[in-house]
UniProtKB/TrEMBL annotation:
Secretion signal, residue range per the UniProt entry: none
Pfam families: GDP_Man_Dehyd
EC number, UniProt record: 5.1.3.2
Reactions listed under catalytic activity: UDP-alpha-D-glucose = UDP-alpha-D-galactose
UniProtKB keywords: Isomerase, NAD
InterPro entries noted in UniProt: NAD(P)-bd_dom (IPR016040), NAD(P)-bd_dom_sf (IPR036291)
Cofactor(s) annotated in UniProt: NAD(+)
One Gene Ontology term of the molecular function aspect: UDP-glucose 4-epimerase activity
The protein's name in its UniProt record: UDP-glucose 4-epimerase
Cellular component GO terms, alphabetical: cytosol
GO biological process, one term: monosaccharide metabolic process
Amino acid sequence: MFGGDYETPDGTGVRDYIHVVDLARGHLAALDALVKRDASFVVNLGTGQGYSVIDVVKAFEKASGRPVPYEIVARRPGDVASCFADPRAALEVLGWRAEFGIERMCADHWRWQSANPNGFN
């Protein structure tokens, strides 16, 4: 983990993690909107909710039933403490919003990885 001294609740970076299904549905909604409009647009696809790196570790521990070992090392140059999407325009323009939270995201990821230990091979 890069950085444990950020001004965040647990000291680790906060990011907006999005379920791959939510992202795919957002892309489909954007393609549909592009077909129906004469103009392009910009929207952020995200949950609008920031989760810390430690939150993600805990969610994977819950999903897997196993401890997830980690080490906190120095920050990388340029990393910000917190960064997450503002998805309001996606709701207004596309009628889209993310449906899945971090626990579902990690559970689905763990289930897929467990069923496919070699990835797509």
